[in-house]
Design a protein that fits this description.
9% of the residues lie in helices and 41% in strands. The chain is mainly beta and 645 residues long.
Amino acid sequence: MTSSEILYTGRLRQRGIASLLIILLVGLSMAAMVFGGMYYLRGLQAKTVAAHAAAEAQLKAWTGVEAVRQYLYQAGSDAATLPVFTGDKGSGQIQLQGLSGVSATVMSVTPTDPNCSTTNPKGTRVNVNLTGASGPATSTVEAVYCASGSPGTQTSSSDNSINIKGDLNLRGSVTYKGDSSNGKLNVQGNVTAAGSISGFSQIYSTGNISLTGSNSINALFSEGDITLTGGNNNTINVINSLHNVSMGSGFNAVLINTNGTVALGSATSADTINAIGDVSLSDQATVGTLNTKGSVTANGANVTSAMVQGNYQETYGKANGGQVGGAPPYVANCCVAWNTNVKLTNAPGLQVAVSTLTTTTLSSSVIDAYTVKNSANYIFDVDAQNNIQVTVNNVNGIANGTYYLTTKPVGYNTSNNWLCTKLNGGTCVAQICHGFSDVNSCFSYSNGTWSVNGGDNASNPPLPPPTMAPGVVWFHGDLNAGSGTYYNTMLVTGSIATSGANISYAVNFADYNNICQNKAFPGLYPTNFCAVGATSLTPNLLGNVVFLAGGYVGNVFSGGTVDLSASNDTYGNVWAADVLKTGGSTTIHGSVTTAHQSGGSSSNEFGAKTIFDLTKLPNSFTPGAPLVAPTSSNSSAVVLWTHYR
């Protein structure tokens, strides 16, 4: 693949992002604090601040200086093309998520500034005001940066994770099969589940997680709230929340960690709770070890050991041991007179050590079918009169070029699905699909939508699969992939929906014999996958994909939905530039990536009976692989000068 085909570039990554740019400082907050502190100490030499609030405001401003520098480091010279750094300078407000009390305003941007970088004349000069706030005090630092170089290309993780951007609704039965260490469901959005969810080692959400019903999940991690209700004696080993946890009847936990509050409903249990906020325990809630920097309100709970920085209030439950930091005569007044089962020692000023949870970086992908068009073996489009044309690249037995998809006279009848040099007549070079019979075409086109339907045994004598000549196919528009067995990587600029009995294999999943020595289309094989004299497929990352949908024309995005709501067996990785929907009885033998590039209200939906089966994968197939090989980064970002404003 050429560099023009690379899907992940710093520039492409930014298309479709609103001018209010949210910089996810995931995993960088601690580093920003360290470097910000260094800036802060130097700032103290120039200006002495007596008030504690003013000093803290300055520290926050310098922390913002380093946070923006780290962001510019990731962008390199491409910073000049980011929406927040273009257009009306001075109105670019940057939200620094994860850094409270810090705001940033872009004042000016100078692309290819010759005074910015002595080593790279394409350096981008960026002027930003960073304001820290603490109570009534504020402090603003003006920082001028130089960002240069290239950030390189991004890739998805090469594991079996399901990577979803946008909200996700789980309904019916959703199951993961495979290596439990890789069975991760990563969601950049909210997760709502009702039904039976099983097999995943972890669900990670940047929003809220709400589960109802039968769920067998090892771990939950939410950057928002976690709400569990209506369970069926479900046990979740680890629950981590940056906000609050609420667990209702039918759920149990081994470990709960939260930066917020915990509320356990009636007849629930947790072996260990570590909370920064308050803890509420209902009737018959059972806790082994409870550690909180807040207070506890209990009503008939059973606690083995508690370390409570605040107060502990209980009616008729138990607390067998521990300490509480509430002021005297707290212990004596905590309970009704007859309850002597709250056996906590008063320790005024008690400080309970509870670690603060931090976020994890989730990679974002930009998916665009147009960028990989030239890698396709068969490119489907129409001429001005809506006649189907197919451009062929790297197919044995067919010269590279553009052909009409038409019929070929055979005796008194015609045979469909032939590539011919003219619409009527001319030279016909190959038949590329088997319809339900020779008089039925596999392909139809109407108002921007393609339909593909065929049979595996259409000819006489019967032929084995596949329905269509194997290789990478590209469609301009939407695609309805109907009945048949396909050994094709299908790339679509619009959306994809399946219907009928569809069985689709990515080229790499179909393996060498089915691609390079297929018997349904003798001699027709993709030469970029089948080298002369080879006995295995030539490595090609694009061949790991079975469905890819969505693309840009200029800055206008369209399509991007992959709808597998019919009964499907899908073998390969699924890439949806917007969202994925499943239903019926669908099995995906591969990983999933969705990018929600429409920015609309549409949600990803996994429903009915959906199985992600990552077992028994062929050696030629790599789940979670990127579309192209990544390139290394040579980016840099330095602070040229700073001063207080």
